[in-house]
Amino acid sequence: MTRLQHYFGSEEGFTLIELLTALAVVAVLVTIAVPAYLAFTGRARDTASKADVRAAVVSVEAFYSDNNDSYSGLSNAAVRTSYDSSLPASVSLAAVNGGNNYCISAAGTGNNVWYFYGPGGSITNTKPINC
Predict the structure, then answer these.
(1) What are residue 106's DSSP bridge partners?
(2) Rounded CA gap, 96 and 102, in Å?
(3) Is 114 exposed, middle or buried (0-12, 13-18, 19+ CB in 10 A)?
(4) pLDDT reported for residue 24
(5) CB 102 within 8 A of CB 118
(6) What is the dihedral of CA 93, 96, 99, 105, to 10 degrees?
(7) Which alpha helices (H) appear in the chain, and where do they start and end?
(8) How confident is the model at residue 115 (pLDDT cuts 50, 70, 90)?
């Protein structure tokens, strides 16, 4: 018991210099970690947007097969109703060129938007002319 009384009764502690040094070290670590974390989350959002576009291509092609080989009438609602009820709201679908082609887009990080112009296109962050 005397050991506890001695421990709690002492006036030992950290000096102001030690506390400021620890605070400075933490500030430097935060300065390094925050930008790295933000870059990581940005890349993750872009990757998720690309995956959403890639997943929507399958549903759009199924729509094409079921609608007499035409993309006419293609919309988010039509695809969600019959093909992919989990299609994210960030994905936009549209028939172009009189139903001969389609355009899928999804927002990524910041002003970055990912596009797929099909059939037979590729995912790009440059808006195709017909989208």
Answers:
(1) 91, 114
(2) 5
(3) buried
(4) 94
(5) yes
(6) -20
(7) 2-9, 16-66, 76-82
(8) very high
- Total number of domains constituting the chain: 1
* pTM assigned to the model: 0.71
Chain centroid offset of residue 12 CA: 50
CA triple 130-47-42, angle to 5 deg: 105
Q: What is the pLDDT of residues 23-43, one digit of tens each?
A: 999 999 999 999 888 888 888
Region label for 40, one of left (φ > 0), alpha (ψ between -120 and 50) or beta (otherwise): alpha
Phi and psi angles of residue 71, each rounded to the nearest 5 degrees, phi first: -95, 5
**Distance (Å, whole) CA 23 – CA 5:** 31
Residue 81 is part of which domain span?
Answer: 14-124
Asked whether residue 48 is assigned to any structural domain, the reply reads yes
